[in-house]
């Protein structure tokens, strides 16, 4: 039989690994009696761990929700996975500092063999750039803002959103947070006209206090699909309508639907409504279609295409 301290740590680890345990199964796992399990549970409670129990012939136990975060017991794979995840975390303002603090705490309590494993993984691996689809920097979103949005969605509480320096505030009903291409979007409904809108979280001016509770309505479509379509059509810094000299079905077969909206023109051509964070990125996307096309605007995109074309011609000596 393990000593009491080791056994209690093993019991705590089991309770953290799944929601519910029958007393006899815990006893069998630890090689003790159900009476010993009851005594160890009582000791854990004295130490501040909120262990809930159901009385009965066998009894059942689960780790409840306490007032503070209890120490977590992790197996080797879990500890390494968390450490690697903390090292990889990007895209939210403040998470790098918080992640570094959490990683330092984890590193201090890792066994020597796991510190060696993590050091080996860190030294032997590298990461490519996150933003390879655009030459624009990734925006950062304050984690506190995301928490506020998520809680408003959970509690069905309206958001009070500012309209700029002098614009009026609006009350909007939040329904879904969507993370896509290193950006965060929130889908909201305006109750005044039943209009569904996709807003970028990094540009959101959230006012406090928020609005009252609302009764949700059924969305008109899948909200993730709504985000992808709306961002492709209007959510970028640069927008373009490109006439592609190919049937709509052929264009759709070559692109991800999130890239843009394809509007049939006739049996031999269509219009691709697309965008990106810069004209250089739009220019690169159009070239990747590998189809003939025509662009009238915006002027900045026309100029970029001319520059790109001349550069390609110089590359082959023409």
From TrEMBL:
Q: Name one Pfam family in it.
A: HTH_11
Residues forming the HTH deoR-type domain are 4-67
Q: Which InterPro entries match?
A: CBASS_pafABC_assoc_protein, DeoR_HTH, HTH_11, PafC-like, Tscrpt_reg_HTH_DeoR_CS, WCX_dom, WH-like_DNA-bd_sf, WH_DNA-bd_sf
Q: Which domain of life is it from?
A: Bacteria
Instruction: List each coiled-coil range.
Output: none
Q: What SUPFAM superfamilies does the record tag this protein with?
A: Winged helix' DNA-binding domain (SSF46785)
Record Gene3D superfamilies: Winged helix-like DNA-binding domain superfamily/Winged helix DNA-binding domain
Q: Which UniProt keywords apply?
A: DNA-binding, Transcription, Transcription regulation
PANTHER family from the UniProt entry: PROTEIN PAFB, PTHR34580
Protein name per its UniProtKB record: Helix-turn-helix transcriptional regulator
Which species?
Actinomycetospora chibensis
